[in-house]
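Table S7 (text form). Paired inputs.
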Amino acid sequence: MGETTLFNQILLPVDFSPCSNEAFRIGCRLARMSGSAVVVLHVIDMSIVATLQRLGLSAVPSDGAAQRRRLRHHARSNLRRLLESGEAKGVNCARLILEGAPFMEIAKVARTQPIDLIVMGTYGVRAGSVDKLFFGSTAEKVVRTAGCPVLTVPLPALLNVLSPEKGK
């Protein structure tokens, strides 16, 4: 076993939220320290597109192909921004854009590629929706289904709110 790194490949699922950006930052730092390669994954949640169409909130309900193109363009430009950021400097990064249910696609990538660790954001106790209560957050579902270690990263501001003595 001539392995020299603890994690050869780290999966960083991103949704471009502040919490996700914090997980990206931590994941890149961990990759630099351990010499790991990184796969940055964004999953376009098609169920949201379908819901918007059903509610009549999309530009043209029948224009699903154009919406998909816009979402892919948005994902590509946001991924490019992340990969060109100072956080990614010196990290061997690959990008991947998929469509589907985020937790399912994240778990599928973790199981079908040589992923040693997933680093992803979690909103923790701040997200108290009914959906989370009954179905769990994306991070919780990934922890249960990924088949590899998962490091969940909360927002630093949330950590300070939950334990104010930590900041002293």
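Next pair, protein 2 of 2.
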Amino acid sequence: MKKQLFLKDIWIDGKTQQRPVEDKVVARYAALMKDGSVFPPVEIIADGKSNYLWDGYHRVAAARKLGKKYIEANIKEGTQRDAIYLSFSANKTNAFPRQPGTAKGIIEKILKDEEWSKISTREIANHVGVT
């Protein structure tokens, strides 16, 4: 479901950010937003209590920097764990590219997890966006 979501209602500390937020990217996005550029909705998993951001950290930071109250979001029901797993696929093909080593760290998290480590290596590679 797509809707305008209060920025204050977005949980950004749910272990769903797999790379650092870059101040230069936030500043660039904020300038573009201020000039009227329209960005894709951020991606949220909602569990009835929390709205876990799993893709769109730079967009949320830019909107907050501009003092906005809302941001457009795609919201799906699920758990924090669902949001964490989905975050492993964020930015594999678009937006601000991942820094070197980010994919390796994501794969290590998956392989250390009892449940996720049972996923085939092909599925993990596709999800993370690596060969």
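The longest helix spans residues 23-34.
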